[in-house]
Amino acid sequence: MSKLFNLSIEDKLATTHFEIDSKPHIWIKDQEICRKCNEKPCQIGCPAKLYEWNEDSREMMYNYEGCLECGTCLLICPYENIHWDYPAGGKGVVYRFG
Ligand code: SF4
Ligand code: SF4
Question: What is the pLDDT of residues 8-53, one digit of tens each?
Fold first, then answer.
């Protein structure tokens, strides 16, 4: 079995690094929809905690640079309000084992 399955999420985060793509691979399509989204599950579901509601600006803030490419946010957004692609080839998260 791969070592991947024996690691906690904290362990996985500790064994990763990122090749940052200058072009975001995630963005929120419409902040107005986020304002109406009561539960805001992206904040809870993202294991890297990349989504954070800003009450002052009433916008969902997000950061693509630490994305683990798990796809959770795409699945749990009830309004399909997140655009998500894999980063360009060779960019994004790099898992290291061994
Ligand atoms: S789950 Fe989707 S609609 Fe709701 S706050 Fe997050 S990005 Fe916006
Ligand atoms: S793909 Fe995973 S790590 Fe990346 S922003 Fe979505 S939930 Fe967070």
Answer: 666 666 767 777 777 888 899 999 999 999 999 999 999 999 999 9
Structure tokens at 33: 């929809």
- Domain carrying residue 69: 17-95
The pTM assigned to this predicted structure is 0.81
CA of 3 to the centre of ligand 1 (A): 33
Query: Distance from the CA of 77 to the center of ligand 1, in angstroms?
Result: 5
Q: Report how far residue 73's alpha carbon sits from residue 46's, in angstroms, rounded to the nearest whole number.
A: 6
Which CATH number fits the domain that encloses residue 61?
A: 3.30.70.20
Q: Which residues line ligand 2 (CB under 6 A)?
A: 26, 45-48, 50, 67-73
